[in-house]
Amino acid sequence: MQIHNLSKTPSILNTFMSELRDETTQKDSMRFRRNIERIGEIMGYELSKSLQFEPHNIETPLGTSTTVLHKKDIVLCSILRAGVPLHNGLLNYFDAAENAFISAYRQHKHNPDSFEIIVEYLACPSLEGKTLILADPMLATGQSMVATFEALKPFGTPKEIHLVSVIGAEEGVNYVSNAFNKDVHLWIAAIDDKLNEKGYIIPGLGDAGDLAFGNK
Ligand code: URA
């Protein structure tokens, strides 16, 4: 897997990441959602540089402009519910994308001894020969990302796969890296040290789904 850790180059992304992590600014859930969305937009821009482009002529009122445009073959797939703001950010840039949603949650919430991933809902177009962008903001154990990819397999084989995440734990990044081929890209804004006993990323930011959508 090719890992693109965007925090390696300081940028405006650091501002959005700091606000996301800061327990004071986190209290504003609208700002929290918008910051994840803004990170999705940056991720979309960065990963767009590695997409396939085709030549195009554009007729202006005064002449012809030649350019290249990316192939509109993208399927954006997000894991509910924390993936929704990240999905929106990516969709702001890839506005012609088809969309897929999957619910995957950790059994842990109901049974503290289990880390099993439960997939309950899945809506997905054909993935055959398309560019799949799979978004999960928190790459903790990496199991949701891998379980989601397994669940998507009946929908066809994408020609290209990009994984997008906001914060990963070293352990989760390694798990995902072992599960995916060498040509799969991971776009991530930060890789943190470790997981706690409940599977939360340390220092991370807390529970992204709760912070974005309530249950404070
Ligand atoms: N999901 C979250 O929302 N936060 C974590 O730290 C891990 C998984």
From TrEMBL:
The keyword Glycosyltransferase applies. Residues 12-214 form the Phosphoribosyltransferase domain. Keywords: Glycosyltransferase, Transferase. The keyword S-adenosyl-L-methionine does not apply. Gene3D superfamilies: 3.40.50.2020. Pfam families: UPRTase. It comes from the Bacteria. GO terms for molecular function: uracil phosphoribosyltransferase activity. Its EC number is 2.4.2.9. Coiled coil: none annotated. PANTHER family: BIFUNCTIONAL PROTEIN PYRR. This is Uracil phosphoribosyltransferase. The gene is upp.
